[in-house]
Amino acid sequence: MTFRSRTDFDALLRLVDLRKVPVFQEVRTRFGGTVEEHRAFVLIDPTGNLLEFKHYVDPRMMY
């Protein structure tokens, strides 16, 4: 899932921490300093699926 709002992305991160949701990959910045720069993290759902959440600095990169 890609977030339009950085505020919403950060709110989900806080909720994940508060509720101790299993994290497969901690939040990280990818492609720093480029038009594709974004922050992302990956959660594990109750059935073992991996769910990626991200927010792009440049909204034109959302697809």
Describe the structure using short key phrases.
alpha+beta; 63 residues; Glyas_Bleomycin-R_OHBP_Dase; 2,3-Dihydroxybiphenyl 1,2-Dioxygenase, domain 1; oxidoreductase; four-stranded mixed sheet; Extradiol dioxygenase family protein; dioxygenase activity
Describe the structure.
InterPro entries: Glyas_Bleomycin-R_OHBP_Dase. Keywords: Dioxygenase, Oxidoreductase. GO terms for molecular function: dioxygenase activity. The chain has 63 residues and is α+β, with helices and mostly antiparallel strands. The protein has one domain (2-61): 2,3-Dihydroxybiphenyl 1,2-Dioxygenase, domain 1 (Roll). The chain is built from 1 helix and 4 strands; from the N terminus they run βαβββ. It has one helix at residues 6-19, and strands at 2-3, 23-30, 38-44, 50-56. Strands 1-4-3-2 form a 4-stranded mixed beta sheet. Strand 3 (38-44) and strand 4 form a beta hairpin. It is globular. The N and C termini lie close together (10 Å).
